[in-house]
Amino acid sequence: MKSKTTAALLALTLVFGGLSTVPAGKHILPQTISASAESSDTFEHGDFTCQLTSDDTVVICKYNGTTAEVTVPAAIDGRLVTEIGRNAFMNRSDIVSVTIPEGVKKISASAFNCCTSLADINIPAAVTSISAHAFCLCESLTEITVPADCKYLGAHAFSDCSSLADITLPEEMLSIGTNAFEGTKWLENKRAEAPLVIVNDMLIDGSSCKGKVTVPPNVTFMADGAFIYNEELTEVTLPDTISDISCAAFLGCTNLKEIPVPESVTDIHLQAFAYCKSLESVAVPDNVRYIDSSAFEGCTALKSAVLPDSISSIPSELFSDCTSLEKVNIPRSVTSVGEFAFFNCPALKSLTVPETVTSLGRNAAGMYVDEDTEDLLPVPDFTLLGYKGSAAELYAKENSLAFYHLKGDVNHDGEIDITDLTALAAHVKSIRSLTYTDTADINEDSDINITDLISLVAHVKGVRPLS
């Protein structure tokens, strides 16, 4: 069943640093040995298992020593140490301090996870990314400075560092993962000051906001999961200074009824509005060029959605499980529709697919799983509308779906109206040739002439529908 598959994938995503879909305070921790530790290029140096990288630098893969105060070497055999690897110090509750050399640029996932006695550690100025769960459950840490050049902070990076009260962040970051600071005294104190936590014009957290919320115009950035699972949020106004709706920004905001997406937005990320079960309509602005998977998944009250012609693809699971969805468009700019994009949308009885779409993924539209039998079935009375020889026609055939050839849609815009009538009349009168001819032969006699024009006139005027 697709929903079970999704749940499994989300769990895996969490393990490797993605979204949190489990209750606060509970974490699925990566227990596997990192790829670097399994490499044939690994070697032992003192208390450390190390690995050579392709650029001839060293990754610290594991600390094997017994000393509670650890100093990581700056170089090994003349090669700079540039990374603290995945799980390198994980579960070392005996360690109280770590000194990291200035040449280190990356602290990988779960590097210091569950180092419950770690009270003193430096993050070098050269560090540009701190991965998911890097310092999760370091309960003895009281302060930390994220260096100015660090642009990426992974999900749960400092979550449940229960003593961490002093955090200094850079002036600008490109990504802050979901629940990066959840369970810290720092975030607790910030929420007490104001429910909308904003630092250096970055919206860090709004999960304790209630009712209608207006994000101030100085905000230029949203952390992933900024309002995640906030069930008391009903309406949000975002400023036109924001260009991205971050991953899981409003995931699980079940009472969110309205959120106008600003014209400044260009990217809508993974699960941005997923499971906003009170959201009834959405209009994606024309400047949006990218929408990620599952952005509106599980919005069960969503009835209509308008997508712009600035996007080139419909991602997987975009509207999956939107059980009330009745109307949605696929713009002519789109060339592919991902798997499960419109899966389990039983209220969606028809979908027009432009001829620009050259591929439709598995169970992209018109399919659902019966809750009782768990059988995969076509949605009752569903019709796919498209063009002869198109990917849509092939998809309909492969999935036993009704297919309607859009004859009469002379300009291929998905609608049969006066513009088609005008174009066909100009062609018949030899004023202007048609760009497309496959939908102009209304009576299918292999000739485009006055009889086709008469049939189309009757249809547009509502006198007689096209057969």
Characterization of this structure:
By secondary structure, the chain is α/β, with parallel strands linked by helices. Among the domains are: 166 residues, Ribonuclease Inhibitor (Leucine-rich repeat, LRR (right-handed beta-alpha superhelix), Alpha-Beta Horseshoe); 62 residues, Dockerin domain (Type 1 dockerin domain, Orthogonal Bundle), CATH 1.10.1330. Helices cover 12% and strands 21% of the residues. The strands form 10 sheets. Strands 1, 2, 3, 5, 6, 8, 10, 12 and 14 form a 9-stranded mixed beta sheet that branches. Helix 5 runs antiparallel to helix 6. The N terminus is likely disordered.
Question: Secondary structure elements and their pairing?
Answer:
Layout: H1 2-15, H2 35-38, E1 42-45, E2 48-52, E3 58-63, E4 69-71, E5 75-76, E6 79-84, E7 97-99, E8 106-107, E9 120-121, E10 129-130, E11 143-145, E12 152-153, E13 166-168, E14 175-176, H3 185-193, E15 197-199, E16 202-205, E17 211-214, E18 221-222, E19 233-237, E20 244-245, E21 267-268, E22 281-283, E23 290-291, E24 304-306, E25 313-314, E26 327-328, E27 336-337, E28 350-352, E29 359-360, E30 367-369, E31 376-378, E32 383-386, H4 391-398, E33 402-405, H5 418-428, H6 450-460
Parallel strand pairs: 3-6, 4-7, 6-8, 7-9, 8-10, 10-12, 11-13, 12-14, 16-18, 17-19, 20-21, 21-23, 22-24, 24-26, 25-27, 27-29, 28-32, 32-33
Antiparallel strand pairs: 1-2, 2-3, 5-6, 15-16, 30-31
